[in-house]
Design goal:
Layout: H1 2-15, H2 22-43, H3 46-51, H4 56-92, H5 96-101, E1 105-107, E2 110-120, E3 123-131, E4 142-148, E5 158-165, E6 170-178, E7 186-195, E8 208-213, E9 222-223, E10 226-227, H6 233-237, H7 244-267, E11 274-276, H8 279-288, H9 312-315, E12 324-327, E13 330-333, H10 334-350, H11 359-403, E14 416-417, E15 419-420
Parallel strand pairs: 4-15
Antiparallel strand pairs: 1-2, 2-3, 3-6, 4-7, 5-6, 5-14, 7-8, 9-10, 11-12, 12-13
Helix pairs in contact: 7-11
């Protein structure tokens, strides 16, 4: 019995553990595991491979393999992505890179800005804006050279051009190429444009790189219906990027929303008041005074053909939208306030009693003024929108005659053949 008690006592002593310390935790869980990992790497020969001077050749081979794998996993896919992007760009438009860069090319006394391009039935049309004080208005006065770049097979590609006067100093240069007899289908070409009488050397004329491919997109500039210069409206007039009409429409909508919120706020006052007119009435008033409703920031010169012009008198309408609040059977509006003010002036002269609003009436008048401010903000917004629409309409109307004219490539200059670049 005594022996069992002694053994039980020994069990209790064996189960007692040492108190926790960071030193022991570090030794057991960190240093211990590092030793185990080192022992494992040593047993598998991995440490020998990395540390032994006799394995230097094998380590170099391993590094070379890692570099090759990195190239295959990184550079090759990236190169393929770039090639795909290049193919997509070449297939999208002839002058995508030039147009996206926004670059203006200076050539002697003129400057050229790429505008748009199109490919239809293996025929290409390129459009440029030519700016210069002495820019000629006839095609014969320009020197246009289209040459095949190095690496591009020269086949039977013909090109010709035309010039359309746009403004006092601005011209539209159209370059047409016929690739129907081209057996290659695509290639990189260099384009140089200058004024013929200036006799500049090719080295002094900037070269524009363009891609001609029979897989490129057909745009509205040139297609089955021929040439449509109205597509160049935004590029030439330049109001689409700033979006003045869209911004004014947003401001108008925000003003209408603010008016509705004010109606709801006043209607919720604990005075049993009724504000008016409702939002629907204000919207009808806005629609009635909206000018050139069909004009947007993206409208072209073709759109103004179907929009009636507004007279100078109609362009400056006098806008007024009075509001009112009904309270205790009385309609409070600006006319009532003016009438009371006039009556008080007369009473001051004759000594008659002066009308003084009660506390509730003062609250009604204060909210009447607040509601009128919201209505006036809507009127200001409609005037801003009308001003933006008028400006856009006038710009379109000014360019309508030029950009809506019918053009045919058969009336361009005599065709020239694309040659290899010297």
């Amino acid at each position: 019995m005594k022996k069992k008690q002694e053994e039980a006592g020994m069990d209790i002593i064996a189960e007692v553990k040492e108190p926790f310390t960071f030193a022991r935790f570090y030794e057991e869980h960190i240093v211990g595991r590092i030793k185990k990992a080192k022992k494992f790497l040593d047993e598998k020969g991995i440490l020998f491979f990395f540390l032994s001077p006799f394995q230097q050749r094998n380590r170099l081979i391993g590094e070379l393999c890692l570099i090759i794998i990195g190239v295959l996993l990184g550079v090759v896919p990236r190169t393929q992505t770039l090639l795909n992007q290049l193919r997509e760009r070449n297939a999208s438009a002839e002058m995508t890179a030039l147009i996206e860069s926004g670059e203006v090319i200076r050539s002697g006394s003129i400057s050229l800005t790429p505008l748009a391009s199109s490919q239809y039935n293996k025929e290409h049309l390129l459009a440029f804006y030519v700016d210069g004080k002495d820019a000629p208005s006839t095609a014969e006065r320009y020197k246009v050279e289209l040459t095949a770049s190095s690496g591009t097979t020269v086949t039977n590609i013909q090109y010709k051009w035309a010039v359309v006067p746009f403004s006092e100093e601005g011209r539209i240069l159209l370059i047409y190429t016929n690739n129907q007899k081209d057996s290659v289908g695509s290639g990189l070409y260099g384009l140089r444009v200058s004024v013929a009488k200036e006799n500049l050397n090719d080295a002094d004329i900037p070269r524009m790189d363009i891609v001609l491919s029979n897989s490129q997109k057909t745009t509205l500039l040139y297609g089955k219906n021929g040439i449509d210069l109205s597509v160049l409206t935004d590029a030439l007039i330049g109001t689409g990027k700033n979006q003045p009409i869209a911004k004014a429409e947003t401001q108008l909508q925000e003003s209408l929303d603010a008016y509705q919120l004010e109606l709801e706020r006043i209607g919720g006052l604990p005075l049993n008041v009724t504000p008016a007119p409702p939002l629907s009435t204000l919207k009808d008033y806005v629609a009635m005074n909206r000018l050139y409703n069909g004009i947007t920031d993206t409208s072209t010169t073709k759109d103004v053909t179907y929009i009636l012009s507004v007279s100078d008198e109609e362009r400056n309408p006098e806008l007024s939208f009075p509001v009112a609040i009904s309270y205790n059977g009385v309609v409070y509006n600006q006319d009532l306030l003016d009438s009371n003010a006039a009556a008080n002036e007369e009473a001051a002269k004759t000594g008659a009693p002066i009308w003084t609003p009660s506390e509730e009436e003062s609250i009604v008048i204060e909210n009447l003024n607040a509601l009128q401010e919201k209505a006036d903000a809507v009127l200001d917004a409609i005037q801003s929108l009308n001003a933006a629409s008028i400006t856009k309409y006038d710009s379109l109307k000014g360019a309508e005659l030029t950009l809506n004219q019918a053009l045919d490539a058969s009336n361009f200059t005599k065709e020239k053949k694309v040659k290899a670049e010297e």
